[in-house]
Structures are given as structure tokens and as C-alpha cells.
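Risk register update: the risk of archive-format incompatibility is retired. Evidence:
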Amino acid sequence: MRAPLRVAVVGGGPGGLYAAALLKRLDPARELTVYERNAPDDTFGFGVVLSDETLGGIEHADPAVYRALKDEFVRWDDIQIVHRGRTLTSSGHGFAALGRHRLLQLLHARCAELGVRLRFRTEAPPAAELAARHDLVIAADGVHSRTREQHADVFRPAVTTHRCRYIWLAADFALDAFRFEIAETEHGVMQLHGYPYSRPSPDHHPSTRPFGPLNPSGASTVIVEMREEVWRAAGFDALDEQQSAERCAKIFAETLGGRPLRGNKSAWTAFRTVVNERWYHGRTVLLGDAAHTAHFSIGSGTKLAVEDALALAACVQEQPTLDEALAAYEAERRPVVESTQRAAAASLRWFEELARTLDQPPRQFAFNLLTRSRRVTHANLRLRDPHFTDTVERDFGCPPGTPPMFTPFRLRGLTLRNRVVVSPMDMYVAEDGVPGDFHLVHLGARALGGAGLVMTEMVCVGPEGRITPGCAGLWNGEQAAAWARIVDFVHMRAPGTAFGVQLGHSGRKGSTRRMWEGIDQPLPDGNWPLVAASPLPYRPGINQTPHALDRAGLAAVREDFAAAARRAARSGFDLLELHCAHGYLLSGFLSPLTNHRTDAYGGPVGNRLRFPLEVFDAVREVWPDDRPMTVRISATDWAEGGTGPEDAVAIARAFAAHGADAIDVSTGQVVPDERPEYGRSYQTPYADLIRNTVGVPVIAVGAISSWDDVNSLLLAGRADLCALARPHLYDPHWTLHAAAEQGYAGPAAPWPDPYRAGSRRPPTGRTDAPKPRLSLTPRP
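Archived output:
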């Protein structure tokens, strides 16, 4: 049997206190000491928000704490969004909050009741010193954790400071909803996040409360946030706490009803996202903000800390050794935290870029705000508040009973029957650039599957422009005839499906093996010479060094693209996309990491655009005027010094000015040492940026995998079309199945006549058979 643990907790916030209480409750013989530098009544901030999920965990782990919390919480269902004088309300969201001071008092009382030693006004000794005389040291010392910094070589923290300034204030009355208000001032955009955390009930009796009376009018947390440059332009950098509170109260007088705001050692600060490669070191473990932070706009700080505490206590109880317990704790919590941090990062960036969405119609703006973190989607918002969602859909133009993804979209002379695109996917099975029966079956199946637009893989404009020997091409008549056969099949057997061709040139990423033989590996023999913007190999020492294109070479490549476009037009394609992404030839001109030229085609972004625009113009000139052209770009290289948001906007704006009908917004694959921020729909913020900055239609791509995501992106105004790749490999009839699952059977997703009998999901066996009544008690 393991001896009782001696545990030191550094930091007396909710996470540290709750961890101490749980560890002591699970084994009263344990010796628990909490070190808190401040006095018991000192606290920062005002209200905290906990989810029903977290409260359920607390109820199971410590019913006494749960009962006390239950009596304290203020609950509400509505979110109000004030946009240019108009208040829009969405219901059914279910929040619970209470005062941070009261939460700490409650946890102090519970710790004292269980025998935890609380050492207030006491600076904790260094973690290494504590570890020498304790079995476990819990570092719950916040975002500025001294413990984390003392052992930075082990924890390896990364701290990112963001672009907005914010301040925590309070109002002495209870808001009746979670409220967002946007103020467009002469200095720039400012936003308010507010929610109630104290609202006495009508039968409240102050003498019965354990910690004294509540504010008779209730209280609300009010956070004011704005970009750093707005904060400075407005002069907040020169104001003290009281002056800042008075100024904010004037700016947001509508929400406050003319009431004042107050601070509590409140200061303007910039949010810091904390990530650690490791969470424990020897006997010391990080918890809460010391280990990770997530932006306050999704209300997750205290929630994550409390959940950390619960998981840590459980792992210590369950595992045979402390080392195994700490490893289990990190393994259990890290995926949950990383998911929350991705959602928080999306929400944080949305508010940083708030100004570009303000011109959206009011309901679309509200829907965009509600779905900003990608955790709230079209489908669950419809469950929460169907009336609100119906109004947003009507404003979007959805006919009755039609999901957003099944509304038509027009590009030049082409009307797409729905918003789903089968994204270009290289197959590497062509022979001498000629698409064969595999392409007919592969692309034909996806065309029969209901998508509005089916795209070919990247079709190369010359034999030296191939990625692999298996790449398809359009540099001769045999290839054009093979493509015409596939186009004819799509138009005949899948009427209403548009078929697009993507033209490209591999540049420095060519002459490699097929993906399954070794991605980006050079051919063992038969390599062909490569050309690029600059003589930079994709991977030095592995891939060959390309020749930098001279004037004659540029002209020859430009003519190759134009000739391929003529063949594509004669083959009958409905749309042409120019591939300027993923590090291929034209992308290599656009990125400063791959274009080191010193002539007119290198240097600033305007020069780097010169050759891709020349190619675009040459193709547009020969491509039929009524057929649309799109351009795929990498909106970020995910690498320091590469293409970023500012360049992406400039690139998109230039192509739009030259006649691009839409921008297909991808990212990365330009340099091998990229560091993408992978996650669900992780590339879509760049489509959002370009659409709402440049005003050009966009195709969003990047880990969009569900029809719910498609509907959400469209309805929020972040994209006009959504391109999906892997889902269409998994299910060629993805679009038709999405229609069936949503109960849609309209003209935007017609089942081919031979397949119509399969338009309903088949039974799965006896498990889904109707159940007989076997009880006299009413069914729930």
C-alpha cells in the first residue's frame, strides 16, 4: 500500500484549491499545503463561467462543492449581439456563472473543512525546494508561472502575445444575457463582452448566506477589448484604472444604461497564449494557466483549471506510481486542452479581425460571431434556436427546406447548382500524361455523387512540368481527346454537374516518385530537368536544383499554359483553375522564400506577382469569355519570412483585378519546414480574410469534412464554395448522402435515375428494428 502523499500546491486560484480539496477528500491521510501570495479576500477579475459538462464532473467528484456552487450560480440562455444599433438575440445557449471571489471563498471553506493547510500572504519556495520535501508539487501559479520559467528547459514553454488589449471591469447590475456590443469609434473598433455573475432571487434572505449578502442589484463582468493600435489612438495607454472605467462606460452606455463601471486592480493587458511541450518534471506538475491558456472569449480559463484538477486527482488515485499518474494526467488532458485552444485561437483571431466583418448583414454578422470558434455550428445552433437560424437562412437566400449548401451560385456564365466542390486530387496513374479508364471512373463517380463542381487533378502543361511520371497533362491532342471523353461522360450522365480543369506546372517540386512510392523523393532514374523562379532545390541534398527561368523560358512556359487552356476549352471543360499554390512553379514566384530573383520578377510582392499574372492574362485571353476562371493560392507558407495574410490579400486582389472569378484559398506545401496549425477547417480563416477584405468570391478548403461545416462556413459569410478532397475519396456520393441526412430532396442534389432506389439509408439489421412495449410505465 502506498504511503500517504505530502503535496504542495503553488497558487491559490480555483484550480489549485480544487486540486487540493479533491486530493485530500480522496485520502484524508494526505498532507496538503496551499501557498498563496495574496490575502484570502484578494482576487482579480469578477465573474467566472463553468459549463454544464464541468459542473457534472464536479457533482460526481465532490457533491458538497457542487451543492454550494449550484446555490450560487446565475444561469441564462440568451446571447445578445449589438451591431450598428440593432440588437439580435439568440437563445438556448445555457451558461452558468458566479463571482470569482465567492468561488474562492467556497473553495477556501471546503479546503479548511477537509484539513488542507492554506498559507495566505506566503510566497511559495521554489518548486525544486518544495520537491525535496514533498512527494508532489502542483504548480497552479498562473499565466506568469514562476515554476514554469524556473524549469523552462524541461517544460519548454511557448508564449504568444496577441494583438488586442483588454481590461476586466464590472457593473453593479445584472445583464439579462451574455452580451456582445460593437462600438465603431473615430479611433477604430472596440468590443464589449459582458455577462451576469450575481443575480439575487426574489426570495433571497441575506442572513442565510455563508459569505455575506449579494449586491442587491446583481453584478456583471464587462470586458472591453480592442486592437493595440486602436487602444493607443484612443489614448487608453495614458489612462489609469478609474479613468479607463469611466471612458469605457461612456463608449458602451447603451449596454450599461448609463451606469458606471468599476475595476478591481484592473489593468489593460494583451492576452498571452501559453503552450508547454511537457506538463510535468520529476515531482512537479503544471496545472491551469501555468500549463495552458485559452482566450477568455470562449470562457474556458477556470473551466480548464477545474477540469485539470479533477483529472490530476483521479490519476493520482488510480495509478500505482506518481510517475505513471503524472503521465496519465498529461495524456488524458492534453488532447482536450489542445482542442479547446484551437477553438479559442479561432475565436481570438475572429475578434482581432472584427473590423472586416462589420459590413455583413446584421443576422449574418450575428451568426458569424456565434460560430466563430467552430464549436457552435449551423446544426447545433438550429437545435438551440431554430427561429434565429431560420431568419439567417432566409437572409442568405435559402428556399424553404433548403440547407445553405444546396443554394445555387453563379460564376460568370456558369451557375453551380450547389456549393460543394470536389477538390483537385492528384491520382498519379496517367500514362504519358493521358488520362485513362481510371480517371473516367474516378471523376465520373464523383460527378454522379452530386457535387456542384468536380475538379480534375493538377493537369500539367508540359512533360517537364509533371510532378511524377503518372501526372496527367494537356500538352498534346491525344491527352485533349482523352479528357474530352471524360467531359462528355460527365455532361451526359451527370447533367447539371460542372466540370473544371486545374492547370499547373510542378516547378522545383517535379521529377519525383508517385506519392505511395515516396512522397517528394526523386526518381531512381529517368529524372528530367526542373525550372523554377530561383535555383533553390525543394530539399537541399535530396531534390535536384532547378534552373532559374530566363526571359525565353518564361515566354515558353507562358505559351504552354495558353496552349493547354485552348485544348481544355475544346475538350469542353466548364471552368479553368490556375494552380498558383503548394510550391509549384507559379507559387514559387509568389513566395519570398522561393523567389530570390533580382530582376523585375523578384523582390516586392508586386514584382513576384508579375509572371503569374502574365500567365493568367495569357490563359484568360484564350479561355472562352463566358466560362469562369479561378486561381488557387497558398495564403500562408506556415513559415517565417514567407507569404502571410498581408501578401495573400495583395495576391488575391491582383488576380481579381485581372479577371479571376473566384480565389481558391489553400495554404502551405511551399517549403518542407512549414509548421501548419492543423485542425478542423484550419485553412478557412484565410478564405474568410480574402472574401471579406478583397470582396471576391472564395473557395474554402482544408479539413472541411462535414456538411455541417459547409453550411456553417457559407452562412457565416466566410466562403462562397467549399472544396472537399478526402471525404470524396471516402465516399464518392458524399453530397447526395449529405442531402439525404438533412432531409433535402430538391433540384440541387438530384439522384441519378439508376441510383434513385439507394437514396435512403438501408437498414442495418435487427438492432434498428421497432421496439415492442414491455412495460406499463410511460416511456420517457
